[in-house]
């Protein structure tokens, strides 16, 4: 038997009214109740702490980055290398050629240290004097025989067609003659050109020029490139006129002098056909070229 329809409808109405009351209660309670802890946003996370290590005193220090460490090591190596070069450079300017030869003979690796530092210094010059001399040689007779006193890395021999005797204190190349430049194994009157490119460094530099005079043929060329400050009388250097006069008294004539470069001076002398060396030559003292510590 079916239930009466009025009762069913009334029941539905009562349920709907009850559901509405429940919804109103829930809505009211949700507005009044504070948010639950679960619904609160999480607190901001603190930044990750840097890795630290203890130093020798037990204090914590930040671990350096790998890139910064390698950069610092490179700077330290460069500073040590620069200091070693300055020491060797000062040694060459303040001792005799024989003392320098003996010094590097005992430890040839020091010569490599010196030339590495030398090349670094020269890289800052706007123009290299050795390149000027190479171009001068190329514009003259390729049959000339050349003696390069203080050849370094033998740049002259590597860049001209001439026969070149490369001479220096140490030889790490079979083509380089290792000796005191005041006493070379070259024969008398055997070369057409003698070059001193920033190599008049010893305290007995006049003996190097006397040796060049010995090995040069009559009419041969003496080409000298020297640091400008060494021949600047206003800055403690020698008078370039007195320097030229001393070489003239050795039996040469001054053909030309190039002073336009701000870093070095070039002299071109020629040995007289019938040269006569003066009994007493007043050689000026050349200022030592000492690099300042940076």
UniProtKB/TrEMBL annotation:
Keywords: Chromatin regulator, Methyltransferase, Nucleus, Repressor, rRNA processing, S-adenosyl-L-methionine, Transcription, Transcription regulation, Transferase. Its EC number is 2.1.1.-. The keyword Methyltransferase applies. The keyword tRNA processing does not apply. Residues 11-26 have a biased composition (Basic residues). It holds the Pfam family Methyltransf_8. Residues 1-73 are annotated as: Disordered. Coiled coil: none annotated. It is found in: Nucleus, Nucleolus. Residues 34-47 have a biased composition (Pro residues). Residues 58-72 have a biased composition (Polar residues). GO terms for biological process: chromatin organization; methylation; rRNA processing. InterPro entries: RRP8, RRP8_N, SAM-dependent_MTases_sf. GO terms for molecular function: methyltransferase activity. Gene3D superfamilies: Ribosomal RNA-processing protein 8, N-terminal domain, Vaccinia Virus protein VP39. GO terms for cellular component: nucleolus. Belongs to the methyltransferase superfamily. RRP8 family. Probable methyltransferase required to silence rDNA. This is Ribosomal RNA-processing protein 8.
């Amino acid at each position: 038997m079916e239930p009466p329809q009025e009762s069913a409808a009334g029941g539905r109405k009562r349920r709907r009214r009850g559901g509405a009351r429940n919804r109103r209660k829930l809505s009211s309670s949700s507005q009044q109740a504070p948010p639950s802890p679960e619904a609160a946003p999480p607190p901001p996370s603190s930044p990750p702490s840097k890795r630290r290590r203890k130093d020798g005193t037990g204090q914590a220090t930040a671990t350096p980055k790998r890139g910064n460490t390698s950069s610092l090591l490179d700077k330290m190596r460069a500073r040590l290398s620069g200091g070693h070069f300055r020491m060797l450079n000062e040694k060459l300017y303040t001792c005799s050629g024989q003392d320098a030869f003996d010094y590097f003979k005992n430890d040839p690796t020091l010569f490599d240290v010196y030339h590495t530092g030398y090349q670094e210094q020269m890289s800052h010059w706007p123009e290299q004097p050795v390149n000027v001399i190479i171009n001068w040689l190329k514009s003259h007779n390729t049959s000339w025989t050349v003696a390069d006193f203080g050849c370094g890395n033998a740049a002259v021999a590597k860049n001209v067609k001439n026969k070149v005797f490369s001479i220096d204190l140490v030889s790490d190349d079979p083509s380089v003659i290792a000796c005191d430049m005041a006493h070379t194994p070259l024969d008398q009157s055997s070369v057409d050109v003698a070059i001193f490119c920033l190599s008049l460094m010893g305290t007995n530099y006049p003996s190097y020029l006397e040796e060049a005079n010995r090995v040069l043929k009559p009419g041969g060329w003496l080409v000298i490139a020297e640091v400008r400050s060494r021949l600047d009388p206003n800055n403690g250097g020698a008078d370039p006129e007195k320097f030229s006069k001393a070489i003239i008294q050795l039996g040469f004539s001054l053909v030309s002098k190039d002073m336009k470069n701000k870093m070095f001076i070039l002299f071109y002398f020629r040995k007289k056909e019938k040269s006569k060396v003066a009994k007493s030559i007043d050689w000026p003292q050349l200022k030592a070229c000492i690099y300042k510590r940076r």
